[in-house]
Write a structure and sequence with these properties.
Structural class: mainly beta
Order of helices and strands: EEEEEEEEEEEEEEHH
Strand content: over 45%
Helix content: under 10%
Distance between the termini: 22 Å
Radius of gyration: 21 Å
Largest sheet: 8 strands, antiparallel
Number of strands: 14
Length: 224
């Protein structure tokens, strides 16, 4: 058995940044087959919740621990958003250039990328693709301020809840539904990753799509 060592060269990993945001609008069957570039994405804060312990007592002892269901939510901040996101923010456009609020909100999918860095390569070491499914944006405030000697661009923010989608069985293991999936470029097959990105971002002959978790898993070698 090897002795534990810390802070070896090339092993000082960290994550930073957020870019390559893509908004996906599901069709009537639930497939995310239409994607739009999300420019100006500044922050995505993932906020898992639930999985809380609920102890049960019997025979004057702690008999067992029941754990509540886990939820996934996120806060998205950006300087701007795709026009197609308006329907997800409760806005309808009955005429060109005219929008009305307090309308039905459409669910959406989201993809964004974070950088993986280390002490040798910096932020060029790799990246992670984050895929979010079944997101629903809650109403949020928008603060418009006067222009002054220290101008700042308005930042929009949305708190989003999610509804998990099925994952299915992989290598005889049945997985629970999920609303979040992450792919690490430093660990997966490069060709499979390129195939996934071609689906996510589209190409000359294909529209950008957000594949469901089972389809993403199928792209990679998942043999334990």
């Amino acid at each position: 058995m090897a002795e534990i060592t810390w802070d070896q060269v090339g092993a000082r990993l960290y994550e930073t940044g957020v870019d390559h945001g893509v908004l996906y609008i599901p069709d009537e069957t639930g497939d995310y087959n239409t994607g739009f570039a999300w420019n100006g994405l500044t922050t995505v804060t993932e906020s898992p919740s639930g999985a809380e312990s609920n102890p049960q007592y019997a025979d004057n002892i702690k008999y067992l621990n029941l754990v509540s269901a886990e939820e996934f939510s996120a806060t998205v901040e950006a300087f701007t958003y795709p026009e197609e996101f308006a329907q997800c923010d409760g806005t309808a456009m009955p005429a060109v250039g005219v929008s009305i609020g307090q309308q039905s909100r459409k669910t959406f999918g989201l993809c964004y990328r974070t950088r993986v860095g280390n002490d040798l390569d910096g932020t060029d070491h790799g990246y992670k693709l984050h895929l979010i499914y079944g997101a629903l944006a809650a109403p949020s405030e928008k603060a418009y301020a006067t222009i002054n000697d220290s101008p700042e661009a308005i930042t929009f923010s949305w708190e989003c809840s999610t509804t998990p989608v099925a994952v299915g069985t992989v290598n005889d293991v049945q997985y629970k539904p999920t609303a979040a999936l992450t792919v690490d470029s430093t660990k997966v097959d490069a060709d499979a990753l390129a195939a996934l990105e071609a689906i996510l971002y589209g190409g000359a002959s294909s529209e950008p799509e957000l594949p469901l978790p089972a389809d993403v898993v199928a792209l990679f070698d998942v043999t334990p």
